[in-house]
Amino acid sequence: VPDWPSAVSFTSRTTFPPVKKLPKAQKRRVLVTGGAGFVGSHLVDRLMFLGHDVVVLDNFFSGSKSTLSHWVGHPNFELVRGDVVEPLLIEVDQIYHLACPASPKAYQINAVKTLKTSFMGTLNMLGLAKRTKARFLLSSTSEVYGSPSVHPQPETYWGNVNPNGPRSCYDEGKRVAEALTYGYARQDGVDVRVARIFNCFGPRMSADDGRLVSNFVVAALKGEPLQVYGDGEATRSLMFVHDLISGLIALMESDYSEGPVNIGSPDEGTVLSWASTILALVKDLRATGSIPPLAAGQKESEIEFVPAVVDDPPRRKPDITLAKEVLAWEPRWTVMAGLEETIRYFASQLAEGE
Ligand code: NAD
Ligand code: UDP
């Protein structure tokens, strides 16, 4: 008799966040590529809450297993380590294709890989959609508008993109991904949706991914300078992640397949104004005891101006008329409420790391 212990009485996990029990006919098999990333993990949460079967494909380049650890072991959930540049053979009903590093710092680490991910990854996932007759949604970006000469940007604007600068791997990668998506729709009848996502923020952004909100919040919490690139007059419109998830699902479920739809918040501000807002909010939350006080010897942060980065789009704001019309969608969260949630999240992350 082998002297191994018996594992039959052990279950991996017994408590999970609550999920809806769907009748079999309504339950979909959904693939989320890039599901371990910031946006993907929130999308997975929502699809799980809705009661669907969710498969995540991720190579963990800019995502992390910890964003999904609360679902590991759930019978509706599966996490696959893999790269979208390789073909995948599974059976699915819907594909949310998000895999691609999204922060300028991350996508510039290996520009050629970013292009491969956008081109070959999208080609592979469209091939999968064609074979399985799954509905396919591409997470495109406001970066396809480049440095826009039309403001705010409607979907009909073709953009003004540098084809060979440091951001081109991402911008042109997404433009070719859109072209591929509509190529498959026209040639092969694949049922496609394209979301052009504008700057989004929220819990689970990586603390070190270099984006505006994560950089400014983490610096303010640590009492370090908030570094504004250039003169701070560039504008960005910030959307809280839960609104983005509602928009992506509304688009996937809608009948609108004619062209891309902007998903973003029209709440535009200069980079400098967002820095001041975040500083003030962190101070208020400290004063009310919502987040821990500054550590002994730490000083309140200040704003510091540092040299501008190359090809930084000077302004960006979505025209969301189409999303309102065809999806009945618009952001519900105020930026301030979203920032509060995000500041609390990073404060608890920093406390855990200590
Ligand atoms: P993220 O970097 O947090 O997530 C991307 C995920 O894709 C990560 O988990 C990463 O590991 C995975 N990934 C990258 N390359 C891969 C590959 N070759 N194979 C498999 N997995 C791979 O970024 P995010 O902010 O969650 O963005 C998600 C999607 O939304 C991206 O397609 C991005 O272009 C788009 N988007 C995001 C924003 C935003 O503000 N967050 C704005 C516009 C568009
Ligand atoms: N930015 C900044 N300081 C930072 C991070 C970002 O001044 O620490 C600026 C950046 O130059 C850009 C804006 O904030 O003008 C948004 O940058 P992010 O990287 O978040 O997104 P994207 O440039 O892709 O819109």
Q: State mean pLDDT (0 to 100 scale).
A: 96
User: What structural class should be given to the helix and strand makeup?
Assistant: alpha/beta
How many strands, what sense, and barrel or not for the largest sheet? 7 strands, parallel
Instruction: Walk across the major sheet and give the strand order.
Output: 3-2-1-4-5-6-11
* Cα Rg: 21 Å
CA distance, first residue to last residue: 48 Å
Strand percent estimate: 15-25%
Topology, number of strands: 13
Order of helices and strands: EHEEEHHEHEEHEEEHEEHEHH
Map the helices and strands.
Elements: E1 29-33, H1 38-50, E2 53-58, E3 77-81, E4 94-97, H2 104-107, H3 111-132, E5 135-141, H4 168-188, E6 192-197, E7 200-201, H5 212-222, E8 226-229, E9 235-237, E10 239-240, H6 241-253, E11 261-263, E12 268-270, H7 271-287, E13 303-306, H8 321-327, H9 335-353
Parallel strand pairs: 1-2, 1-4, 2-3, 4-5, 5-6, 6-11, 7-10, 8-13
Antiparallel strand pairs: 9-12
Bound molecules: nicotinamide-adenine-dinucleotide (NAD) and uridine-5'-diphosphate.
Nicotinamide-adenine-dinucleotide is lined by residues 33-34, 36-40, 57-63, 83-85, 98-102, 106, 117, 121, 139, 141, 197, 199-200.
Q: Could you explain how this protein is built, in words?
A:
- This protein is an alpha/beta fold.
- It is built from nine helices and 13 strands.
- The chain has helices at residues 38-50, 104-107, 111-132, 168-188, 212-222, 241-253, 271-287, 321-327, 335-353, and strands at residues 29-33, 53-58, 77-81, 94-97, 135-141, 192-197, 200-201, 226-229, 235-237, 239-240, 261-263, 268-270, 303-306.
- A seven-stranded parallel β-sheet has the order 3-2-1-4-5-6-11, sandwiched between helices. A two-stranded parallel sheet has the order 7-10. It has a two-stranded parallel sheet with strand order 8-13.
- Helix 1 crosses helix 6 (241-253) and helix 3 (111-132) packs parallel to helix 4.
- The longest helix has 22 residues, at 111-132.
- The radius of gyration is 21 Å and the shape is globular.
- It starts with 28 loop residues before the first strand and ends with a helix.
- Bound molecules: nicotinamide-adenine-dinucleotide and uridine-5'-diphosphate (UDP).
- Nicotinamide-adenine-dinucleotide (NAD) binds at residues 33-34, 36-40, 57-63, 83-85, 98-102, 106, 117, 121, 139, 141, 197, 199-200.
